[in-house]
Design goal:
By secondary structure, the chain is an alpha+beta fold. The protein contains 9 helices and 12 strands. Helix 2 crosses helix 3.
Length: 388
């Protein structure tokens, strides 16, 4: 059902995951949870957990209780109860792992917020749901035209129809508060449905739309990331990254969430490093820090006035110099502590590798151009003139 971008087999069924949500294309595999308890059986006499997880369009998921006598599996389309109608979704998780997910999200399965599943969806309801999904791009385009006509500074990023077609939810992003009361009236008159406007952030918009990041993989927010923590430029400074907005920003326009992944490791490693503004006192002059490699524990210093000559020191050597400076002692120079890696003749390999770049011509496969000046043919003497 959700494999809109998957190719189909000869009989028309989707190829790949067979609509079971494991192919990783389109919205099948968004924020899925691996059921590591799926192959385990319940103890004798203990009923299975009566609450399941249902996914709707994109990454929206909710928990629903099963009626008595109804058993569902992952990937089954079900009809869920909502206010003033019903909605259609796909079952994404069943069993005891749903209990862990609800505990993680601090939800009680006996609360009034958990709605009920009415029944499994029929083929007629599935066809109607597909028809509504096909109408969403046209509705979104028309809604954007209405918003532009009213001069509203907002961006309608997505539209989601309810399963019965009586209601549509419009997701939008805006920098400030927007008065869209007239817009709702115009859309209700144009589409003849109930309208709900829901504002989302830029990160939530990227998670709904999806895409490919600069790393070449699908966006983390659209596949597995659910906790949108704030990312600051301090995370880039800790990791010695250049503060280039074009490289640090993701598709949402905000700083990339992956800047926080290794931040704790960098902070723990930087505790053993000296401060960047600390200067080394030597008899040759004052040395200033230029660069550091955190995980290799290497630091580069340069004398004042000799900024082009960098000296690589180990972290241990820098601490030794700092200890002497605190005792009001100066070292002779950084050259005594510079770490250089040299290879002796005995350690050199027998095979010598040469750099052959540039030794061969790049246009060796090109065809030779013929000369424009044709060679003149050598005329043979006339036999009649020779006989005369």
């Amino acid at each position: 059902m959700a494999c809109a971008s998957c190719a189909s087999n000869g009989n028309g069924s989707p190829r790949g995951c067979k609509s079971n949500g494991t192919c990783g294309s389109d919205s099948c595999n968004k924020l899925t949870v691996f059921d590591w308890l799926g192959n385990m059986e319940m103890p004798g006499g203990k009923p299975s957990f009566s609450t399941v997880e249902v996914r709707f369009k994109n990454s929206r998921k909710e928990f629903f209780t099963l009626p008595e006598g109804l058993s569902v599996a992952v990937g089954d389309p079900v009809i869920t109860h909502v206010d003033n109608g019903y909605d259609l979704g796909l079952v994404t998780l069943t069993g005891e792992l749903v209990r862990f997910q609800m505990k993680k999200k601090k939800m009680d399965h006996d609360s009034e917020e958990v709605n009920k599943i009415l029944r499994k969806a029929s083929q007629q309801e599935i066809d109607k749901w597909h028809a509504l999904r096909d109408k969403e791009p046209q509705i979104q385009k028309r809604a954007r035209e209405l918003a532009i006509g009213l001069g509203l500074e907002m961006k309608l990023s997505d539209v989601e129809f309810q399963g019965d077609g009586k209601k549509a939810t419009f997701y939008y992003t805006a920098d400030s508060r927007v008065d869209f009361r007239q817009l709702i009236k115009d859309m209700a008159q144009a589409f003849s449905i109930r309208i709900e406007m829901r504002q989302i952030g830029l990160r939530q918009e990227a998670s709904r739309l999806g895409g490919i990041g600069s790393c070449g993989r699908e966006l983390c927010c659209s596949t597995w990331l659910t906790d949108y923590r704030s990312v600051s430029t301090a995370a880039a400074r800790y990791q010695q990254l250049s503060l280039n907005p074009l490289k640090l920003a993701g598709q949402c326009g905000k700083l990339k969430c992956c800047l926080n992944y290794e931040l704790d490791a960098y902070r723990a490693a930087l505790k053993t490093f000296p401060k960047a503004d600390f200067k080394l006192q030597t008899e040759k002059g004052v040395a200033v820090l230029q660069k550091m490699d955190i995980f290799k524990e290497q630091l580069w210093y340069a004398y004042k006035g000799e900024w082009m000559n960098w000296h690589m020191l180990s972290l241990e050597s820098v601490h030794e110099i700092i200890t002497k400076n605190k005792n009001k002692e100066k070292v002779l120079g950084l050259e005594e502590y510079t770490t250089e890696t040299t290879v002796s003749k005995a350690e050199k390999p027998d095979v010598v590798f040469e750099n052959v770049v540039g030794q061969d011509s790049l246009n060796r496969f090109d065809r030779l151009k013929r000369s424009k000046n044709k060679r003149r043919k050598i005329r043979k003497p006339n036999r009649r003139q020779n006989n005369a």
